[in-house]
Amino acid sequence: MRLFFALLPDDNVRETLARRALQVQRRCGGRRLPTESLHLTLLFLGQVPTDRLPMLAAMTTAYSVPPGTLQFARFGAFARRRIVWAGIGDGVGVGSGRSEEDVAAAQDASGLTDLLALQRDLVERITVAGLPIKDEPFRPHVSLLRDATPSDLGGAVASLSLAPVDWSYKRIALMASEPTGGRHRYVELARSPLDVPRDALSGQPG
Fold this sequence. Notes:
Layout: E1 2-7, H1 11-28, E2 31-32, E3 40-47, H2 53-61, E4 68-78, E5 83-88, H3 100-110, H4 112-128, E6 141-146, H5 153-158, E7 165-169, E8 173-180, E9 183-191
Antiparallel strand pairs: 1-3, 1-8, 2-6, 4-5, 4-7, 5-6, 8-9
C-alpha cells in the first residue's frame, strides 16, 4: 500500500482552497484536484507492507497533535511536474531584505515553525518504528492544479496573488493512495484523536 501522513482541512477551508484553485486555473489552465482530495502531506511513506498497517494505525490513533494554525498566502509551482500549489506564508527568506530574526518571526506568524516541529516529531516516530524514510526536504504545500499549461509556469504563478487562507488543525491522518482510472484516490485509514492525555502516550517515541 502507498501510505502517507497528512493534515486534512475542514469543509470551509477545503471550499476556500477550491475557489483559489479555480482562480489560478483561469491563468494557468490544467486540471484542478477534486475538492475532497485537498490535503497537506506531512510525510510520504511510499509502499508499505500491509502487515505494518496495524502498527501505523495504532500509532496514529494515539498521537497527540498540538493544535496550530497555518496561513497560506502564496501560489507556487513545481514547473517540471506542471503542478501549482498553495504555500504557507510569503516565502521570503534571508537575502531578500530580511534578517534571520525577521524570517523566524514571519514563520512563527504563518504557523510554519510549529508545522516543521510536528513533521520532525512524526519522522522521528516513524524512524524509531523501523520504517525507512527517504531523505527528502519537507516542502509543505497543498497541490491545487496538475498539468498546468504555461511554458513559463513559475513566472505565471509569481504574477498571481493569493488572498490568505487560515487553516486550523488539531489532528493528523494516515492515508492510502489508491490508483483508479489512471489517477489516485485518497482514503483515510486512521486519524489521531482531538485530545489524548499525556499518560496515554507513555512508551511512545518522541
